[in-house]
Amino acid sequence: METALTSGILTSLAGRYAKALFDLAREKKEVESIGSYLKVLQKLLHDSKDLKQALMNPTLKRQEQANALQEICVKIAAPETLQTFTCQLIKAQRISYLPKIIEIYDNLVLQMNGELRVEVISAHPLTPSQGQVLKMVLKKSFPGTLNLIFMKDPRVLGGIMVRMGSRVIDATLVTQLDKLATAMKGSA
């Protein structure tokens, strides 16, 4: 199950929590259900700044935060496994890791289905033909189904960055300029 692309991520704190939730969900045959409810929970936290602040507020008692999150989970009819998990995150003061846990959990689901999430970051959107060429090149090194997610980030200036699990291929102009600046400082 674990590959070289995910082993480093799974050793992080968020990775260990995501793997524990994934293993429990798989054991209870709730992998897809929990994944769906994680996305709903993430959207609620993203859309409600008050909720997010309340859950991240260290002055509130953990039990109050856990009760509030439990109430939300009940209202959205989340599986009991997820309700217990989120309460444990609150009690351990790890709720701030939830977005990363969700991302890693999603990657584990993709991996279970023989897919690999690949983030492609560029200054400008790639054309469909450029995306297909990139996908064909990546398929030569990474068998299975590649789930390419294209993101635009003007800070990269040009070129692309490809992220697959813990592996990063950085062919951006900003990185090349940084390397050039470092080399020029070293020779001065």
Order of helices and strands: HHHHHHHEHEEEH
Shape: globular
User: What's the domain count?
Assistant: 2
Q: Provide mean pLDDT, rounded.
A: 85
| Rg over C-alpha atoms, rounded to the nearest angstrom | 20 Å
Could you give the count of β-strands?
A: 4
Structure annotation, total helices: 9
CATH top level class name of the largest domain: Mainly Alpha
- Order of strands in the sheet with the most strands? 2-1-3-4
Give the helix proportion (percent range): 55-70%
CATH topology (fold) name of the largest domain? Peroxidase, domain 1
Helix vs. strand class: alpha+beta
The CA-CA distance between the termini, in Å, is 49 Å
Describe the largest sheet: 4 strands, mixed
CATH architecture of the largest domain: Orthogonal Bundle
Quaternary state reads single chain
β content, as a range?
5-15%
Secondary-structure topology with pairs:
Blueprint: H1 4-10, H2 13-27, H3 31-47, H4 49-56, H5 62-75, H6 80-91, H7 98-112, E1 115-122, H8 128-141, E2 145-152, E3 159-164, E4 167-172, H9 173-187
Parallel strand pairs: 1-2
Antiparallel strand pairs: 1-3, 3-4
Helix pairs in contact: 2-7, 3-7, 5-6
Structural features, described:
This protein is an alpha+beta fold and 188 residues long. The chain has two domains: 4-109, Peroxidase, domain 1; 114-187, Glutaredoxin, CATH 3.40.30. Helices cover 62% and strands 15% of the residues. It has nine helices and four strands. A four-stranded mixed beta sheet has the order 2-1-3-4, with helices on both faces. A hairpin with a 2-residue loop joins β3 and β4. The radius of gyration is 20 Å and the shape is globular. The model is unreliable at 1-5 (pLDDT under 50).
